[in-house]
Amino acid sequence: MPDYRTVAVAAAQQAGKIIIDACGAEFVVDYKQGALTNMVTEVDRRSEQAIVEIVLATFPDHQILAEEGSEGPNQHSPYRWIVDPLDGTTNFTHGFPAFCVSIGLEVEGHLVLGVVYDPLRQELFEAEIGKGASLNGQRIHVSQVPALNTALLVTGFAYDQESRQRNLEYFSRFVLASQGLRRTGSAALDLAYVAAGRVDGFWELMLAPWDVAAGSLIVTEAGGRVTGFAGNAFSLDSAETLASNGLIHDEMVTLLTGH
After folding, report:
1. 163 and 197, same structural domain?
2. Is 125:153 a contact under the CB 8 Å cutoff?
3. Nearest-CA neighbor of 192 among 140, 237, 240, 232?
4. Is there a single domain that holds both residue 117 and residue 171?
5. What is the domain range of residue 59?
6. Handedness of CA 114, 120, 121, 122 (dihedral sign)
7. What's residue 100's pLDDT?
8. Given 124, 140, 156, which residue is the final one in a domain?
9. Which residue has the higher pLDDT, 44 or 149?
10. CA 157 to CA 189: how far, in whole Å?
């Protein structure tokens, strides 16, 4: 198999450099669909451009699905790179230190590679199908926390008000049932943290493929479980994402579904 990993890591690290160089500098902020909660900056766009250029320099015929709209020359290719050039843009614009680069690769509809890079901490989470998951080259595994009442959870809130209201209901259930609950503002980092055992479970509504492509593979390769809220098979196009160490998964499904 071609060395997709080397290309993905190089692209993520170059994007990370662009992001770090922009920290503390002035940059233009726009709002998607006029929503003040859905931001995009010129840094997102520069980061995405760098990733796309590096990928296409080696794989010029591959398909690309990227948050800010970049595409490869062949949108019918069985190879699809799924890119979030800056996950946690709101955090980035406020100087809150929780954002990352996320790059996944699908081959014929199956995820085979995932890279999540936190440029602030220089933490590189990665996984290849069937090869396990790692953080800076060291193997990682999900936690062994056995029950929800001793678990640390993490979630995020969608941009639309209806989904936010719905998740507030889930939030109230989990904050009472778990040991602790956090919100970082970066779904890709949340998934990487599940994989590394830093948190034990994660759920969120209305995520896009670029939010979850890399992280979902990293979780499963670290021994965790990723499904919909009802425990159903996970899809990148799903409106519901539930990830855990596996041991608390059924309890989380019960709280999300009410049965």
Report:
1. yes
2. no
3. 140
4. no
5. 4-140
6. positive
7. 98
8. 140
9. 149
10. 14
What rounded mean pLDDT belongs to the chain?
Answer: 93
pLDDT bracket for residue 36 (50, 70, 90): very low
User: Is the sign of the CA dihedral 28, 31, 34, 35 positive or negative?
Assistant: negative
d(C-alpha 133, C-alpha 85), whole Å: 21
Q: Which amino acid is at 138?
A: Q
Alpha-carbon distances of 90 from 29, 184, 195, rounded to whole Å: 10, 11, 24
Buried b or exposed e, range 121-150, using 16+ CB within 10 angstroms: eeebbbbbbeeebbbeeeebebbebeebee
Coil, helix or strand at residue 164: helix
pLDDT of residue 2: 64
The count of structural domains within the chain is 2
* pLDDT tens per residue across span 183-216: 999 999 999 999 999 999 999 999 999 999 999 9
| 8 A C-beta contact, residue 124 and residue 117 | yes
Looking at the fold, whether 129 and 232 belong to one and the same domain comes out as: no
Length of the chain: 259
Helix (H, G, I), strand (E, B) or coil at 66: strand
pLDDT tens-digit series, residues 108-137: 999 999 999 999 999 999 999 999 999 999
Same structural domain, 14 and 129: yes
Are both 98 and 132 inside the same structural domain?
yes
Start-to-end CA distance of the chain, whole Å, equals 44
Residues in contact with 111: Cβ distance below 8 Å, sequence separation at least 6, in sequence order: 104, 105, 129, 213, 216, 217, 236
